[in-house]
User: Which sequence fits this backbone?
């Protein structure tokens, strides 16, 4: 009985106490969700057309893939976000989730502009998602991460641009891996005991 209470105590502490165990470096989410900071180089249309390596970001691992072409990233389905050039003659760059394996656009991302900072984004419920979003320093974004064959299949992400240059963007990010669209502990979230145990390895 005492062992069970200890396990439950650890579980509840993990749910309500902020932590940095998941942080990949840089930004740390105050609620202990996986978080960090990253930089992506611009994927130009010339590089995409030539089959050159471009960069994509994977929120599940907090890592940048720099070794594959855009088409290879699409086929592998391993990255969630790219910083790309929509038109070669445009000075504006965009965030987007790569197309699916059938080359269909996915409506997964939305800009929240500069109305709120990263810590102030508590959920992404009811947000109208688009195929891509213009990148601007100081702007915040929310998106869905799709993981084929994973459970849950979709999970929520929020990010904020900390620096923007001609050929790169830096951002802080937070990932909610349990399928909820809420980024803070909430009484509206429902989790089964088995899901909680699986999430925290109990």
Assistant:
């Amino acid at each position: 009985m005492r062992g069970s209470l200890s396990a439950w105590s650890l579980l509840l502490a993990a749910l309500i106490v902020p932590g940095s165990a998941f942080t990949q470096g840089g930004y740390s989410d105050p609620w202990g969700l996986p978080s960090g900071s990253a930089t992506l180089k611009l994927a130009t249309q010339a590089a995409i057309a030539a089959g050159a390596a471009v960069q994509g970001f994977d929120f599940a691992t907090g890592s940048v893939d720099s070794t594959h072409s855009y088409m290879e990233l699409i086929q592998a389905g391993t990255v969630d976000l790219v910083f790309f050039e929509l038109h070669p003659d445009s000075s504006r760059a965009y965030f987007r989730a790569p197309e699916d394996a059938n080359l269909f656009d996915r409506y997964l991302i939305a800009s929240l502009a500069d109305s709120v900072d990263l810590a102030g984004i508590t959920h992404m419920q009811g947000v109208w998602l688009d195929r891509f979003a213009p990148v601007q320093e100081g702007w915040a974004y929310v998106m869905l991460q799709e993981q084929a064959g994973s459970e849950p299949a979709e999970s929520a992400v929020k990010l904020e641009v900390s620096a923007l240059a001609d050929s790169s963007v830096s951002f802080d990010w937070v990932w909610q891996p349990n399928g909820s669209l809420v980024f803070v502990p909430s009484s509206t979230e429902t989790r089964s005991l088995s899901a909680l145990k699986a999430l925290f390895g109990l």
